[in-house]
Amino acid sequence: RCLSVSVLCLLPQSALARWACVRACPPSCSCTQEKSCSVLCDRAGLAELPREFPCEASAINLEKNRLKFLSERAFGTLPSLKSLSLDHNNISFITPGAFKGLSNLLELKMAHNEYISYLHTRTFTGLKKLLRLDLSDCNLFSIPDRIFIEQTAMTELLCFQNNFRRIPGAIRGMENLTHIYLERNKIEAVAYNSLQGLGSLRYLNLQENRINVIHDNAFQDLVRLENFYLNDNLLSNMPRLAFRGLSRLKMLNLGGNQLINVSKTWFGDMAELEVLYLDRNQLLNIEEGAFENLTSLITLHLNSNNLTTLPLSVFQPIYFLGHLYLFKNPWECDCGLDWLKQWMESYKLVRDIPCASPSSVAGLDLSQVVFPTANGTCVDPAELNLTTASSEVQPTTENRFNSLISKLLQQELREEMGNGTESARNATLPEPEEGQLSAGVGGRGTQAVQSLLCFTVTWLFCGLFHLSHAS
Ligand SMILES: *[C@@H]1O[C@H](CO)[C@@H](O)[C@H](O)[C@H]1NC(C)=O
Ligand SMILES: *[C@@H]1O[C@H](CO)[C@@H](O)[C@H](O)[C@H]1NC(C)=O
Ligand SMILES: *[C@@H]1O[C@H](CO)[C@@H](O)[C@H](O)[C@H]1NC(C)=O
Ligand SMILES: *[C@@H]1O[C@H](CO)[C@@H](O)[C@H](O)[C@H]1NC(C)=O
Ligand SMILES: *[C@@H]1O[C@H](CO)[C@@H](O)[C@H](O)[C@H]1NC(C)=O
Ligand SMILES: *[C@@H]1O[C@H](CO)[C@@H](O)[C@H](O)[C@H]1NC(C)=O
Ligand SMILES: *[C@@H]1O[C@H](CO)[C@@H](O)[C@H](O)[C@H]1NC(C)=O
Ligand SMILES: *[C@@H]1O[C@H](CO)[C@@H](O)[C@H](O)[C@H]1NC(C)=O
Ligand SMILES: *[C@@H]1O[C@H](CO)[C@@H](O)[C@H](O)[C@H]1NC(C)=O
């Protein structure tokens, strides 16, 4: 194909490049003017490939034509070609060796060819420098295990929206892969060796498959993984060491599965995790300490589950959680959630916690529920006689005192967080005991609480003294 200009290609490139491009620009395509020209043949109604391409071409765009078939060496020899797009055609067969002669190709796009259901082992022969391959939205059921034997440099593989029933064995050991897109296939399991040897992987998308089995240590080689989508699968349980080794993970999406329990061990290695999605499952139970090593967590999505209660111990020790999503759960708003209500009021990081029970508060938001205290302890709404409740729920001095503390604490925290300093650290106070309020802010605020308590007590006394004198 390129023969007619191959002699010219041997001459000094700068002198001839532009001329070569213009001369060999295929009919019904246009070619840009620069030295390494782009050949634009998209939406040209082509049913067959042009007979030749300019051998200086660095990019060829053949998107949205009616190409059906690629013969061996379909593009001839194009040593400068870096990028080739065949998206949105009607390709059903690719002859082995079709891309031979494109030895410097970096990117090959063949997405949206709905009749590609089969690829020969030697389909990509000769593409030794390929970095990015897009086979999305084709009709692939599997690919041969050795199909990428020459593509060891590949960094990005896009295969979303196909019919894979398992993770292609071909990716095993591809140590330079950084991004894998396998969403919207029919994958059913992640075996212990499915993702072996992918030590550079930073992004893995397995969402919207049918995964219901994950083996222990299935991800242990993914030591650089940062973003991991496992949402909208069929997971109802996972083994205790399913996520072992994912120590660089920043985002994990487990939403839209059928999980019932959250195991204490799943997130134990994820000290850098910032965002965790567990929404749209059927969670009834979160094991104590499940989040204990999530020291970087900023956002936690627990909405749309079957949670009725959330013991404070689940969150202990809690770090600086920024957002906690809890809506669409059948919350039982009894004294067990008193701490959460206080937390809501103090930090505004949580909102929208609709109560499903007890009946006396059903339909209210937790923020509207008043927990009366009797003799200093919280009394569950269910146990109160509603008609007399209103008279018993007179705000006591103690209640006002508590709310004052949380207001002051909130202000203090804002200042602390805003400046990122630990200004309250050097107070000459004894180590405070772990109390309810301090637990809510992960220990950092404990000393602040203590000093505020002292301060507030003094302030109240002064106020009372002042009042009694005034009257
Ligand atoms: C695409 O290819 C398939 C099978 O090869 C054929 O049935 C179909 O008519 C083709 N569609 C177009 C638009 O050419
Ligand atoms: C990965 O890429 C580096 C250069 O980026 C290269 O030296 C190495 O050989 C590649 N690995 C493989 C298996 O090709
Ligand atoms: C979930 O946890 C509960 C209580 O800890 C236990 O009885 C149940 O067997 C667990 N279910 C699963 C599916 O692990
Ligand atoms: C938290 O990390 C520590 C230290 O790495 C480890 O010993 C512990 O088992 C982890 N906790 C969980 C729940 O995995
Ligand atoms: C969760 O609640 C839904 C209805 O809200 C129910 O259909 C489902 O069975 C519950 N799941 C569990 C594990 O209780
Ligand atoms: C409060 O304590 C007193 C005496 O200790 C007791 O008689 C009373 O019943 C208690 N009230 C409630 C609501 O528990
Ligand atoms: C609740 O109060 C009403 C009216 O004051 C009274 O008739 C009823 O017996 C009380 N119920 C209980 C359980 O104390
Ligand atoms: C904290 O930041 C506020 C403004 O954000 C500033 O006015 C104040 O001086 C800072 N305090 C310290 C100790 O840096
Ligand atoms: C706080 O204490 C540390 C050692 O305990 C000391 O080095 C530091 O200067 C103190 N900071 C302030 C602001 O007093």
From TrEMBL:
PROSITE patterns: LRR. Residues 24-59 form the LRRNT domain. Residues 416-442 are annotated as: Disordered. Residues 329-379 form the LRRCT domain. Pfam families: LRR_8 (PF13855). It comes from the Eukaryota. Residues 1-17 form the signal peptide. The keyword Repeat applies. GO terms for cellular component: plasma membrane. GO terms for biological process: optokinetic behavior; visual perception. Keywords: Leucine-rich repeat, Repeat, Signal. SMART domains: LRR_TYP, LRRCT, LRRNT. InterPro entries: Cys-rich_flank_reg_C (IPR000483), Leu-rich_rpt (IPR001611), Leu-rich_rpt_typical-subtyp (IPR003591), LRR_dom_sf (IPR032675), LRR_TM_domain-containing (IPR050541), LRRNT (IPR000372). This is Nyctalopin.
